[in-house]
Amino acid sequence: MHTDQSNHHSLGLGIDAGGTATRWALAAPGGAIVAEGAVGGLSALQMTTEAGRASVHATFAALAQAVLAQGRPARVQAGLTGFGGDGAQMVAWLAELLGLAAGAIVLGNDIEIACRASFAPGEGYLVYAGTGSIGAFIDADGVFHRAGGRGVVLDDGGGFWIAREALRQIWRKEDEQPGAWRASPMAHAVFDHIGGADWALSRQFIYGGERGAIGRLAIAVAASAERDPAAAAILREAGRELGRLALALVHRFGARPVLLAGRAAELHPLIADSMRSTLPPGVALTQSGLRPHHAAARLALGAGAPSE
Fold first, then answer.
1. Which helix (H) or strand (E) holds 298?
2. Sequence-separated contacts (24+) of 185-192 with Cβ below 8 Å
3. What are phi and psi of 117, to 5 degrees?
4. Which residues contact 281 (CB under 8 A, 6 or more apart)?
5. Dist CA 239 CA 217 (whole Å)
6. Which residues, listed in sequence order, are joined to residue 79 by a DSSP beta bridge?
7. How many other CB atoms are there within 10 angstroms of residue 183's CB atom?
8. Is the pTM of this model over 0.85?
9. Cβ(196)–Cβ(205) under 8 Å?
10. Strand bridging mode 133-138 / 144-148
11. Three-class SS string for 24-85?
């Protein structure tokens, strides 16, 4: 956790909740970030089960403890993956844990905050690749449009997809040639990450693990890309899938600049290079280490979301 120990009043708390981690930041009037940190990942989709609700509450409790150790926010802007508009229970939990009125807390979709932090309305398209993936555009009238972003089971090009493709290819090869994994740097990296080469371990990991934990396996895949053509091919395909999201928006709304962001997009240069090759010559692609929790903190106080 990073913190500036200066005393600040009227702090804005920004929350960016994703499947891999829930990041938070405190902004002082004017927009300076004075503290930030991260706790476990969460998704608004977890609110559909009792166990999921308990997990979300526990994550909020850990977040509140970390935040209050640095200062008490006056307002909160939270972007949550999977958020569909029904956030009353989550607002109530955050209000209680942070000692705020419910009216001081605004929940929304995580990608809308990221999009607002990237472009002025009507200016450009954001393609965000985290555990899942999405393309987003806020038009000149402030209306939000999307391509993809339908959850890791359907999304392509994000960390979960990269991990799933790696395991899929490894085990298909084992079907054809048992023991082939021993000659694969990607398989070694993947099995080291999940704890062994037995199918039972892979089965438990992919079917019993949290989506964020599965998404983190993509780090191991990317680390083996220089030594294993199969891993490099998966990353190139991830880039092409992310390019498809941008192209969908270009076809609907016309040529505009595209910004690629998200931790999965930063795993290896092959992803951005492959995505760039899918785009028409007139569509510029840039990449950014976007920090939506900073943008959310500034939005909480109406300070805007200036570029980092």
1. helix 292-300
2. 185/224, 185/227, 185/228, 185/231, 186/221, 186/224, 186/225, 186/228, 186/230, 186/231, 188/224, 189/220, 189/221, 189/223, 189/224, 189/231, 190/166, 190/217, 190/220, 190/221, 192/220
3. -75, -15
4. none
5. 17
6. 16, 108
7. 11
8. no
9. no
10. antiparallel
11. EEEECCCCCEEEEEEEECCCHHHHHCHHHHHHHHHHHHHHHHHHHCCCCEEEEEEEECCCCC
Return the structure tokens found at 182: 């021993």
List the chain pLDDT tens, one digit each, 308 residues.
554 444 446 899 999 998 778 999 999 998 899 999 999 998 898 999 999 999 999 999 999 999 999 999 999 999 998 887 788 999 999 999 999 999 999 998 888 888 888 899 999 999 999 888 999 999 999 999 999 988 777 778 899 999 999 999 999 999 999 999 999 999 999 999 999 999 999 999 989 877 778 888 999 999 999 999 999 999 999 999 999 999 999 999 999 999 999 889 999 999 999 999 999 998 999 998 778 899 899 989 885 544 44
Tell me which residue has tokens 């298909």. Answer: 172
Contact 47, 56 (CB under 8 A): yes
| Residue found by looking up tokens 């048992």 in the block | 178
- How many residues are there in the chain? 308
